[in-house]
């Protein structure tokens, strides 16, 4: 049988005393957490361990003795060995360090093979062990023993967190044996964050109550607010602030990391928004932007008019149906005239509108980008109308041709059973079906050409809005805090451990060094990416091509997604 002893590195230079830790049930392992220095009173040690056990879920006990040879303490080994009668246990460990050798020791038990695993107590306590990725094979016993070690050290934090100048009855050695100095700034932030969080929670509850007013929940208002990126981002940011400002302490690691990621992302978002405001309102950039908007709109209208005139002729030498071509061309040209008249009507107010819209960046860069996406949707509303008209006409003819084609084959669509059934038609029905099929077939190229041109224009707008939405999603969902831990303190996010041999000699225990393997960057994104709103399309490329072929509409609206486990 092999006995595994997990021994902290900080205790290798400790004075002689008692080993305090716990046994891992069913694993034949012991985790040493601290060394109680001599001199001590056994009754005080028992009371101290009872007090620590009441604060943690760890069954702390005296594991054995630790001997550091010093002058004038020649009989210390026998004295510490006799303490096994005062602290009864099934096993009594006796570890000692030989002078002149680093990281070595001995166990006074010849019936078992002993492996001493040295570990960095600070890193193990602050780290979070994640599941092993990429199918690395480990036995369930090894995984459970390793997790038990991490869990034991992490749950023993009351044993380590003592003040620097707290002179208690016992002197211990662990990773914080010198204590920790309290930070006045940190304490002030902790004390001041509670009323701030309560005030923010009250303001958010008031905002949620205003949003639940019946007037704002009527179907038209609810439909429009669900399609505006600004409203969606506002609701999303409100949800984030409610999570961060909650006065309830995070009890789990994932909950703490989610709050930290949201808080850091919020700070970065606000900082980038303030930088954007500083850039916009310097050197009259708002006025320059407003003065160039109307000429750009006129240029776009001119290009669209030339495109429609080209389609009304013989585009690329194609023979079009002249009557339908002229009707569609004039119809779209009239819409362009309406749109440019609307732009010129709003031109005196554009600079004022942009000035107030720029102030939205004080709520964060994501809010400003959402407002920009809505402005693009409003400024390109005529292109959306052209696309809808062309798509509806094209879709109507495609479905009409498919229905008439089933008529020629003696089939029909059964609406109740959702399938194609056989059907017999008389001569009048077949004659009218033939005429309609011929008319739709010869009008299809003209409609398809207009649909193709306006679909391409629509896809350009959707692509631009999609890039804006991707930037917003990146700022909202990127685990910035977790990525910072991965770069600056990789041991905080552990994927596993590796062991390095320190000493392997005959007649002495095997000494290993346990080192933490940091988690991969891809795994950080998988575990800690915040659930967010993704922009269209979420379909596959085949499904998107099918929608475009049959004339179904595509939208850049956002859809909420959930994070997969």
Describe the protein:
The chain has helices at residues 42-55, 76-82, 121-126, 140-155, 157-160, 184-211, 219-227, 229-244, 253-280, 285-312, 322-358, 365-379, 381-408, 427-477, 480-488, 521-528, 541-550, and strands at 2-8, 17-24, 29-37, 61-67, 93-96, 106-107, 113-119, 128-129, 172-173, 411-414, 419-422, 493-503, 510-518, 533-535, 558-560. With 565 residues, it is an alpha/beta fold. Strands 1, 2, 3, 4, 5, 6, 7, 8, 9, 12 and 13 form an eleven-stranded mixed β-sheet that branches. Strand 4, helix 2 and strand 5 (93-96) form a beta-alpha-beta unit. Helix 10 packs antiparallel against helix 11.
Q: Helix content range of the residues, please?
A: 55-70%
For the secondary structure, the number of strands is 15
Q: Which strand-content bin applies to the residues?
A: 5-15%
Question: What integer is the average pLDDT?
Answer: 78
Q: Which residues sit in consecutive blocks of at least 5 with pLDDT less than 50?
A: 102-109, 132-142, 534-539, 557-565
Tally of DSSP helical segments: 17
Q: Main traits of this protein?
A:
two-stranded antiparallel sheet; 15 strands; 17 helices; 565 residues; 11-stranded mixed sheet; single chain; alpha/beta
Give the arrangement of secondary structure elements.
Layout: E1 2-8, E2 17-24, E3 29-37, H1 42-55, E4 61-67, H2 76-82, E5 93-96, E6 106-107, E7 113-119, H3 121-126, E8 128-129, H4 140-155, H5 157-160, E9 172-173, H6 184-211, H7 219-227, H8 229-244, H9 253-280, H10 285-312, H11 322-358, H12 365-379, H13 381-408, E10 411-414, E11 419-422, H14 427-477, H15 480-488, E12 493-503, E13 510-518, H16 521-528, E14 533-535, H17 541-550, E15 558-560
Parallel strand pairs: 1-3, 1-7, 4-5, 7-13, 8-12
Antiparallel strand pairs: 2-3, 2-4, 3-9, 5-6, 10-11, 12-13, 14-15
Helix pairs in contact: 6-8, 8-9, 8-12, 9-12, 10-11, 12-14, 13-14
Keywords: Membrane, Transmembrane, Transmembrane helix
Organism: Denticeps clupeoides (denticle herring)
GO biological process, one term: GPI anchor biosynthetic process
């Amino acid at each position: 049988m092999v006995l595994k002893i997990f021994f902290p590195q900080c205790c290798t230079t400790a004075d002689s005393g008692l080993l305090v830790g716990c046994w891992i049930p069913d694993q034949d392992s012991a985790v040493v957490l601290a060394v109680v220095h001599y001199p001590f009173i056994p009754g005080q040690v028992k009371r101290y361990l009872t007090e620590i056990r009441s604060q943690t879920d760890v069954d702390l006990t005296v594991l054995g003795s630790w001997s550091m040879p010093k002058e004038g303490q020649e009989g210390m080994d026998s004295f510490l060995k006799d303490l096994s009668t005062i602290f009864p246990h099934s096993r009594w460990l006796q570890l000692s360090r030989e002078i002149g050798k680093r990281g070595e020791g001995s166990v006074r038990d010849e019936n078992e093979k002993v492996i001493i695993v040295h570990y960095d107590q600070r890193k193990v306590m602050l780290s979070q062990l994640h599941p092993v990725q990429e199918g690395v094979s480990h036995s369930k016993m090894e995984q459970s023993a390793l997790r038990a070690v991490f869990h034991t050290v992490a749950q023993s934090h009351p044993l380590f967190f003592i003040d620097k100048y707290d002179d208690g009855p016992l002197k211990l050695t662990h990773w914080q044996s010198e204590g920790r100095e309290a930070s006045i700034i940190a304490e002030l932030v902790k004390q001041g964050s509670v009323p701030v969080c309560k005030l923010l929670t009250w303001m958010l509850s008031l905002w949620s109550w205003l949003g639940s007013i019946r007037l704002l929940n009527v179907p038209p208002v609810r439909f429009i607010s669900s399609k505006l990126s600004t409203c969606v981002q506002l609701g999303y940011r409100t949800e984030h602030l409610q999570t961060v400002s909650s006065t309830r302490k995070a009890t789990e690691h994932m909950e703490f990391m989610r709050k930290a990621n949201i808080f850091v992302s919020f700070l970065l978002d606000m900082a980038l928004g303030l930088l954007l405001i500083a850039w916009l309102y310097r050197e009259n950039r708002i006025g320059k932007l407003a003065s160039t908007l109307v000429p750009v709109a006129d240029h776009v209208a001119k290009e669209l008019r030339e495109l429609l005139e080209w389609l009304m002729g013989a585009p690329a030498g194609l023979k079009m149906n002249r009557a339908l071509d002229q009707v569609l061309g004039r119809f779209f040209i009239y819409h362009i005239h309406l749109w440019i008249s609307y732009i010129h009507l709003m031109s005196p107010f554009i600079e004022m509108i942009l000035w107030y819209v720029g102030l939205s960046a004080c709520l964060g860069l994501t809010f400003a980008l959402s407002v920009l996406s809505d402005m693009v949707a409003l400024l390109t509303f005529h292109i959306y109308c052209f696309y809808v008209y062309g798509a509806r006409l094209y879709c109507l003819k495609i479905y009409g041709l498919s229905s008439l084609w089933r008529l020629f084959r003696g089939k029909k669509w059964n609406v109740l059973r959702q399938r194609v059934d056989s059907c017999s038609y008389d001569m009048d029905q077949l004659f009218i079906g033939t005429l309609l099929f011929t008319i739709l077939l010869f009008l299809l190229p003209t409609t398809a050409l207009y649909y193709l041109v306006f679909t391409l224009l629509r896809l350009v707008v959707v692509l631009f809005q999609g890039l804006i939405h991707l930037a917003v999603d990146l700022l909202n969902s990127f685990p910035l805090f977790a990525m910072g831990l991965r770069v600056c303190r990789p041991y905080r996010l552990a994927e596993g451990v590796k062991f390095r041999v320190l000493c392997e000699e005959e007649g002495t225990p095997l000494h290993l060094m346990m080192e933490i393997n940091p988690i991969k960057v891809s795994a950080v994104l998988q575990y800690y990416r915040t659930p967010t709103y993704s922009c269209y399309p979420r379909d596959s490329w085949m499904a998107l091509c099918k929608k475009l072929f049959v004339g179904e509409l595509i939208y850049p609206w956002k859809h909420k997604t959930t994070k997969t486990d």
